């Protein structure tokens, strides 16, 4: 009897201290959250939630924009970055990651954000020039030095004995562009015969040795771990691997047909409203379209929209026969439904062994 | 993992028997064990340090004093300082309840304590997303109050707390079970209060086991990747812990820098192991 009493006293003591400690913890954290938004009237912080391969681009661009904004308005701006697979990043914003701007791999992922909690107005893609896409890219192949498997075009990827590296279209934006580019090639080869197209694309995916979740993961698999004969990659990512990790180890192969990849940008209305960062977020995205911004994009191997900057970097960006998502696939909503949603063509052709 | 309790080492009997095995079997077994250790433990550890210093000491120190690296180290320390004491208290409370009292649903309670061991860290992270994300159970409320849990420090602390919850309790339960409650009962009959009994009788009995649990808990809290990755939001300089920072550096082709930070964590792990061995040695003396 007595034992029980003292023990329960002890339990009360322990839970009380625990509660106090826990209370301290949460108070401290919520307190710091408040000071973030109220105390810092002058300097401002914005968060850019982006996809994988833009790390180097935005590292350079953010510095440039911070200087520009300081000159223009006298206000200090800190831009925070978060990177990951495009779909995953969109998901995080929907779940409450307070992004001021999203700069994702494809319109479909921003559409998904826009469809939730009124985070972004539905007409977001018309709010900035060029479909809200300040820079574009395309899909090319990265092969090992001297191209030992003789890879020249998409049909070489479907051959037996070729090991292909590409990320998973379910989670990676880049992977969806890869998939559609292969589809576009097959579409032309077989004059739209869907059974043959599926067989062809299926053969490519049978050759896939590692299916990573994001574009950067695939690049590391191919480049650093040395797996695979060919990496289907963003043009900018391929160039970056070449420069960062050795021109004497890899070569870029440009296929006969590819896709115009448009990675768009948007202000997340609901978040900037709440944080009071509308102006700086908007200016941030608009600055991407200035000559300075376009130059930085081109330097980081993104194809600039600005004709003059593009001309300047012409030898870096070969002319490729490019199909577009709107003309050839009926826009992202349709492409997403037909190809990548559950039961879409990707599920049909891809059966892991 | 945890779950085992440091006790006496192999008795003399078994030593004698192995000595009777043919020489070649002994050599083969020892070579196998050493080879395994070398390939799976020693070589990777050495590789980390070689890679970390590949571009010289200046790059090494630059990468661990980089602002993002420092903020990752700071965040990791904050998380550890919050989770380890809390879990030590919860662990002692749980072990005390389970071992010194009989009540209905006791085995259910023990099962629940073990839950974080059984659940994949990714799920542990997603559980908090389900609860606190904008779509989650408390999402709307938290958004209106401007309280950030997920994709901020509190979420990381919660996820770590969850994952490291069982370490202390799991360490103490077998120990306290073996000790029984006779000493506490004696203390109580002699007129000591509950708290005094705990401080003067129970605590000295369990202190080494408790410390052992705390060290394991600490190691896991520092190193947790999966659960933290899910709730972090990966904002540079804000919500990246050391393991997440290592992954980011690796993905940015900064291999040396990433292994430099990794080497810091390895040093921490080695210190932890030394401490752990010291405690095992201490307990074997006491035991």
Write a compact overview of the structure shown.
The complex is a heterodimer of chains A (353) and B (287). Chain A is 52% helix and 16% strand.
Describe it.
The complex is a heterodimer of chains A (353) and B (287). By secondary structure, chain A is of the alpha/beta class. Chain A folds into 2 domains: 44-133 and 263-288, Periplasmic binding protein-like II (D-Maltodextrin-Binding Protein, domain 2); 137-261 and 320-349, Periplasmic binding protein-like II (D-Maltodextrin-Binding Protein, domain 2, 3-Layer(aba) Sandwich). In chain A, 52% of the residues lie in helices and 16% in strands. Chain A has helices spanning 2-38, 55-73, 86-95, 107-114, 129-132, 154-157, 173-189, 194-206, 215-223, 235-245, 269-275, 278-287, 291-299, 307-312, 325-329, 331-340, 345-349; strands at residues 44-51, 77-84, 101-103, 135-144, 164-165, 208-210, 230-234, 250-253, 257-261, 265-267, 303-304, 321-323. In chain A, helix 9 runs parallel beside helix 10 (235-245). Chain B has 2 domains: 8-52; 56-286, MetI-like fold (Orthogonal Bundle). In chain B, 78% of the residues lie in helices and 0% in strands. Chain B has helices at residues 12-19, 23-52, 57-65, 67-100, 106-118, 121-132, 139-145, 153-163, 166-179, 182-189, 194-223, 226-232, 242-251, 255-286. In chain B, helix 10 (182-189) runs antiparallel to helix 11 (194-223). The two termini of chain B are 22 Å apart. Classes of the chains: A alpha/beta (353), B mainly alpha (287). Chains A and B meet through helix 1, strand 2, helix 3 and helix 9 of A and helix 4, helix 8, helix 10, helix 11 and helix 13 of B.
């Amino acid at each position: 009897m007595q034992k029980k009493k003292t023990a329960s006293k002890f339990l009360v003591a322990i839970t009380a201290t625990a509660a106090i400690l826990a209370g301290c913890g949460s108070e401290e954290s919520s307190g710091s959250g408040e000071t973030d938004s109220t105390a810092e009237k002058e300097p401002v912080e914005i968060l850019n939630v982006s996809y994988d391969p833009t790390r180097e681009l935005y590292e350079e661009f953010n510095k440039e924009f911070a200087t520009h904004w300081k000159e223009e308005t006298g206000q200090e701006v800190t831009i925070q970055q978060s990177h990951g697979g495009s779909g995953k990043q969109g998901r995080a914003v929907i779940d409450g990651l307070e992004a001021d701007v999203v700069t994702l791999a494809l319109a479909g992922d921003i559409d998904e954000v826009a469809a939730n909690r009124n985070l972004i107005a539905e007409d977001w893609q018309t709010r900035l020039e060029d479909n809200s896409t300040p820079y574009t890219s395309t899909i090319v192949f990265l092969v090992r030095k001297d191209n030992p498997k003789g890879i020249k075009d998409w049909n070489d990827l479907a051959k037996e004995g070729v090991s292909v590296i590409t990320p998973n279209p379910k989670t990676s934006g880049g992977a969806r562009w890869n998939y559609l580019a292969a589809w576009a090639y097959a579409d032309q080869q077989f004059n739209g015969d869907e059974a043959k197209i599926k067989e062809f694309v299926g053969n490519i995916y049978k050759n896939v040795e590692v299916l990573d979740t994001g574009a950067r993961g695939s690049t590391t698999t191919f480049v650093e771990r040395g797996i695979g004969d060919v990496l289907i990659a963003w043009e900018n990512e391929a160039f970056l691997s070449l420069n960062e990790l050795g021109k004497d180890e890899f070569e870029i192969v440009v296929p006969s047909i590819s896709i115009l990849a448009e990675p768009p940008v948007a202000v997340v209305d609901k978040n900037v409203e709440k944080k009071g960062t509308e102006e700086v977020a908007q200016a941030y995205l608009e600055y991407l379209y200035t000559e300075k911004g376009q130059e930085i994009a081109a330097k980081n191997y993104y194809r600039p929209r600005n004709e003059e900057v593009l001309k300047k970097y012409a030898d870096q960006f070969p002319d490729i026969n490019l199909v577009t998502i709107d003309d050839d696939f009926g826009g992202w909503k349709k492409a997403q439904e037909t190809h990548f949603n559950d039961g879409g063509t990707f599920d049909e052709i891809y059966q892991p062994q | 993992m945890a779950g085992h309790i440091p006790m006496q080492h192999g008795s003399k009997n078994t030593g004698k028997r192995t000595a009777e095995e043919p020489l070649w079997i002994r050599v083969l077994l020892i070579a196998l064990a050493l080879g395994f250790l070398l390939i799976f433990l020693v070589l990777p550890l050495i590789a980390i340090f070689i890679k970390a210093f590949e571009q010289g000491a200046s790059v090494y120190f630059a990468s661990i004093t980089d602002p993002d690296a420092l903020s990752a180290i700071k965040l990791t320390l904050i998380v550890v300082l919050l989770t380890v004491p809390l879990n030590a208290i919860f662990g002692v409370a749980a072990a005390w309840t389970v071992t010194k009292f009989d009540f209905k649903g006791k085995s259910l309670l023990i099962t629940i304590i073990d839950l974080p061991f059984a659940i994949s860290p990714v799920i542990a992270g997603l559980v908090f997303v389900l609860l606190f994300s904008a779509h989650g159970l408390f999402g709307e409320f938290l958004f209106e109050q401007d309280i950030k849990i997920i994709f901020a420090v509190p979420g990381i602390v919660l996820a770590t707390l969850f994952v490291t919850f069982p370490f202390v309790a799991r360490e103490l339960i077998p120990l306290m079970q073996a000790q029984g409650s006779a000493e506490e009962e004696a203390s109580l009959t002699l007129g000591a209060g509950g708290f005094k009994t705990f401080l003067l009788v129970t605590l000295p009995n369990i202190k080494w086991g408790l410390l052992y649990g705390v060290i394991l808990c600490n190691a896991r809290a520092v190193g947790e990747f999966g659960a933290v990755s899910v709730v972090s939001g990966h904002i540079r300089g804000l919500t990246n812990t050391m393991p997440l920072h290592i992954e980011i550096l690796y993905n940015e082709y900064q291999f040396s820098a990433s292994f430099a930070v990794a080497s810091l964590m390895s040093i921490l792990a080695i210190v932890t192991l030394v401490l752990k061995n010291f405690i095992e040695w201490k307990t074997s003396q006491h035991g």
